[in-house]
Amino acid sequence: MSRRPAPPLRKPCPTCGRPLAVREGSGERCKLICPACDGPDPLHSPKALGWAKGSLRPPKRPQET
After folding, report:
1. Residues 6+ apart with CB under 8 A from 33
2. Does any domain span residue 21?
3. Superkingdom of the source (predicted)?
């Protein structure tokens, strides 16, 4: 019976505690990011931007005269 090597330990995220992932940077530099905290901002996704720029608007209040 052979023992498998232990997986490398990854530094935990200081905010949520999940293991950090490696993001390839420019050149030889790599950056550690948290997939949960540093992931893409959902408010800047193409779907959210299209929805915000769409034709739907809240109803206007009637003018009081």
Report:
1. 20, 21, 22, 23
2. yes
3. Bacteria
Integer Cα distance of 19 and 13 in angstroms: 6
* Residue 22 falls inside a structural domain: yes
**54 belongs to a structural domain:** no
Range of the domain at 18: 11-39
Task: Say how far apart CA 39 and CA 19 lie, in whole Å.
Answer: 13
Whether residue 23 lies inside any domain: the answer is yes
* pLDDT tens, position by position, 5-64: 666 677 888 888 888 888 776 666 778 888 888 766 677 778 888 888 888 888 888 887
Of 11, 18, 23, the closest CA to residue 37 belongs to 18
Positive or negative torsion for Cα 33, 36, 40, 44: negative
pTM confidence score = 0.42
